[in-house]
What we know:
Layout: H1 2-55, H2 59-77, E1 83-88, H3 101-115, E2 124-131, E3 136-146, H4 152-155, H5 161-170, E4 184-192
Helix pairs in contact: 1-2
Amino acid sequence: MQRKNKQKKILLLALILVPLLVVAARAEDRRVLQCRVLARDFMTELKGELQAALRGGRLVPALSVCSKVAPELAERYSLLPGVEVGRTSERCRNPENRPDSWEKEGLALFQKRRQQGETLAGMEYWQEVDDDEAGEKVFRYLRAIPVGSLCLRCHGENIDGNLAKALSQLYPEDEAVGYRLGELRGALTIRLSP
Ligand code: HEC
C-alpha cells in the first residue's frame, strides 16, 4: 500500500515537472533562435557596409565608415525592446568594446574550443545569468567572429602606413592589430532582458 502511494507521488511529481522542463527548454530555444537571427543580420549588414567601403580602395575613408557604422548598427539593433547588441574582443581597438567578466569567460572558452580542434565559424556560447544591477535574470549570448582576409588590412600584421597613422590617432589604445587569418578576432555579444 505504502509502495503504491510512493509510486503515485513520483508519478504526480513527474506529471508536474516534465511540462515545466519542456516549457523552460522551449523558452531557451526561442531565445537562442532569436540571438542567431540577430547575429546573422548584424554581421551580414556590417560586412556589406565594410565591403562597399573597401571597394573604393581608399583605406583611410573606409576606416571612418567602419568606426561609425559598427557602433551605429549596434545602437540600431539595441532599439529593439529588451535587446542589446555589441562586439567585443580580448584585444580591442575601441576601449568601449572591452569585455566584462562574463564575456571574458566566453572568449577564453572559444579559444580553448578552437585549440581542441573546433572551427570558429558558428561557435556559440549562451547562459542565463543574474543581472546584479537590474536584479533580474538576463539571457546572454556570444558568437565567435573569426579573422577573414577582408579584416587583415585593418587588423593584420602589415598595416598600410597612412592607415596605421590614422588608426593610432583615432584609437590611441588600439590592441586589435597583428592578427592572422583564421584566428579569433572577437565575438558578437547579445543580451536579452525579460
Ligand atoms: C577599414 C578598416 C577595418 C576593417 C577592414 C575591419 N575592421 Fe574591425 N574595426 C575597425 C575599427 C575602426 C574598429 C573600431 C570600431 C569601434 O569604434 O567600435 C574595429 C573594431 C572591430 C571589432 C570590435 C572590437 C574592437 O576591437 O574594438 C571587431 C570584433 C572587429 N573589428 C572585427 C573585424 C572583422 C572580423 C573584420 C573583417 C570581416 C574587420 N573587423 C575588418 C576597422 C576595421
